[in-house]
Automatic annotation (TrEMBL), chains A, B:
SUPFAM superfamilies: Nudix. It comes from Arachis duranensis (Wild peanut). This is Nudix hydrolase 20, chloroplastic. Probably mediates the hydrolysis of some nucleoside diphosphate derivatives. The lineage of its organism: Eukaryota, Viridiplantae, Streptophyta, Embryophyta, Tracheophyta. Transmembrane segments: none annotated. Keywords: Hydrolase. The keyword Hydrolase applies. Residues 206-347 form the Nudix hydrolase domain. Belongs to the Nudix hydrolase family. GO terms for molecular function: 8-oxo-dGDP phosphatase activity. The keyword DNA-binding does not apply. Pfam families: DUF4743, NUDIX.
Length: 375, 375
């Protein structure tokens, strides 16, 4: 479960939000119903909050919230607000786009780099070049590019890798020695490859696969939910999908799903072959110098009732099978889920009819699942 | 099956396209894969084309195309082009948006009216008013509105109805005496109601429900396909959903689905209650003075194997149950489907895993299903 490029945000940060009185609105209100935002989860009462306040929660906390007796009218105009808030958590800082300069290769914008971060490039003017282009009818375009001497993908990859190595953990924490392809859009030629941890500093689009593993018991859908290991660097202890992963260079989505199914949940290929691509979500999240532009391919896998997942890579503490309506309540009322996983579960809720046009804000929420450039 | 506000385009118009060598590209190429557009359906060989050329086709033609032996690599870069072309058919004339003026009520843009069509309003200046607003920092905004004396929804509805009656069939053909709500976004207050046939002349958003009725036989999905009556005013003889309808004033989607299920396919409420809202598609189509801005709520209904639909309103000639992969081929290779239904079937193909990230252009096609303002 390595699909997270974000700086580690310990759960305590989220827990504090649980008790905040008003969420911020980091993206234009057009994505939201016009009425004032007052997320339903703020009224959620959790009797034993001490565990949450310290940045950890247990499965017991999850079940208590999910089975909360609190009844809420589904056609209440605020019913979807808990979901909107999860979308917001993945789409922060849209007002700060002007702080970034386009990163252009072969005439295609592949990323965005913060004006502050480019200061690091001063000693590397044989790799990164600043271009001020006023050829376009008098209007001036400013952008960053790679030195024109770097003509092939291989040359660019090694030149950029050298810069990243020099900048080191101080400027690009969490280096993984794993390469992501840099493309202008999914499926187009790879212009070069970039260290995964550096992707948000260059604002390149990163692709991943997220899989909802579910079981149908007596006609009721249940979702397999993972709880991340408390020792994970990113989002420790939080709820996650059964299977999810970034899409590294040189492997396609289908193959990656099969591989991650084996590694993360012990799902043999004879079963994972039935995983279906069903949708995609996207978000854009600005946090300091980091501009995450992620596109997640969503998969559904209907599992046999008797299947028990088994994590093979030590990144998951445990899995639980939870009725989908209870999962929905956990997402609406808490921030237990890793934010981008919440988005993919919301997409599942749409596709399986658990969010309906009678819920006020239906189309706004549906649209908000692809706020980021989904290409 | 009345969800069509378009001018009647007889099938012969489409048939001629079947043999055209190059489709037009009515919307920006960003919606399409960057490679040149050469839709796969142009290479489709139909031995007996005389029936098609006269504007009619038979179920036999449908099955011949659907079972075409022609094998095509799914990872061929042109595999999705037949689908892209169907999206284009619903999204014509985007370059002509500047010919329209916003139609603004209570400060909210609810529609767009062609500069030529507003000529008709000259004798009705107690109903329609032209406003040139230069209060916005010197930039001038031009728009149409209703006379400020028309304060309530009722007053507006009857004043506009009077104008439409005066303009008559000459200017607004196909008047149905059915009212559509005028809103700025779905679920927001109804500002007034408008004759359904007039909706595209005012560019108001029109909402509808489209339902994919399917059956699973030996693990393979089959879609119930309707063939419209040859006497229908719009899209006679073309392929259609099992159930579809516009959303008139005063009825919600769920109730409308149940009502249309009964009327159009004889599906009792005991079964139609299982219909699930799963998605929404939207398009914007400019054709002369008409600006269609439709949002369709998509539903899936899994039907029992032994269920046989029965049309009760005479608008459907017959229904056939067709394996979904064959339906997909019909959509890719022909224009037999009513264009907006093709969009909803493509959405079904995405959600059920029949279009995959390995198909070049996956994200572009997915995004193109909501080109219109989906709100």
């Amino acid at each position: 479960m390595g699909w997270c490029l974000c700086k580690c945000r310990p759960l305590s940060t989220f827990s504090s939000l649980l008790y905040s009185s008003k969420p911020s609105l980091p993206f234009p209100s057009t994505f939201l119903p016009s009425s004032s935002i007052k997320s339903s989860f703020f009224s959620c009462s959790i009797s034993s909050s001490s565990a949450l306040a310290t940045g950890t929660f247990t499965w017991e906390d999850v079940f208590r919230v999910s089975q909360s007796a609190e009844e809420e009218e589904e056609n209440n105009s605020s019913y979807l607000h808990g979901y909107f808030h999860k979308v917001q958590l993945c789409n922060r800082g849209s007002g700060k786009q002007s702080e970034f300069l386009p990163f252009v290769i072969e005439g295609q914008t592949v990323g965005f780099i913060h004006a502050g971060f480019v200061e690091n490039f001063k000693s590397f003017n044989d790799v990164f070049v600043y271009i001020k282009d006023n050829s376009n009818g008098g209007s001036v375009g400013e952008f960053f590019s790679l030195h024109p001497m770097l003509k092939t993908a291989e040359e660019r990859t090694s030149a950029v890798a050298y810069v990243i190595k020099c900048l080191g953990e101080k400027h690009i924490p969490g280096i993984r020695n794993e390469l992501y392809p840099v493309v202008s859009s999914f499926g187009s030629p790879v212009l070069f490859s970039l260290e995964r941890a550096a992707a948000p500093y260059f604002g390149i689009k990163a692709y991943g696969i997220h899989m909802n593993g579910y079981v149908e018991i007596d006609g009721q859908k249940h979702l397999w939910v993972g709880k991340r290991s408390n020792t994970k660097q990113t989002y420790p202890g939080m709820l996650d999908h059964l299977v999810a992963g970034g899409l590294p260079h040189g492997i396609n989505c289908k193959e990656n799903v099969a591989k991650e199914c084996e590694e993360e949940a012990g799902i043999p290929r004879s079963i994972s072959i039935r995983a279906k691509p069903v949708s995609a979500v996207s978000y854009m999240d600005i946090d300091g110098y980091r501009y995450k532009r992620d596109v997640l391919f969503c998969y559904d896998l209907k599992l046999p009732e008797n299947f028990i997942p088994k994590n093979e890579d030590g990144e998951v503490e445990s899995f639980k099978l939870i009725p989908i309506r209870q999962v929905a309540e956990v997402i609406r009322k808490t921030q237990f889920y890793k934010p981008n996983c919440a988005l993919v579960v919301i997409d599942f809720l749409f596709r399986h009819g658990y969010i309906t046009p009678e819920n006020f804000g239906y189309l706004d929420l549906l649209r908000s699942l692809r706020i980021g450039e989904c290409s």
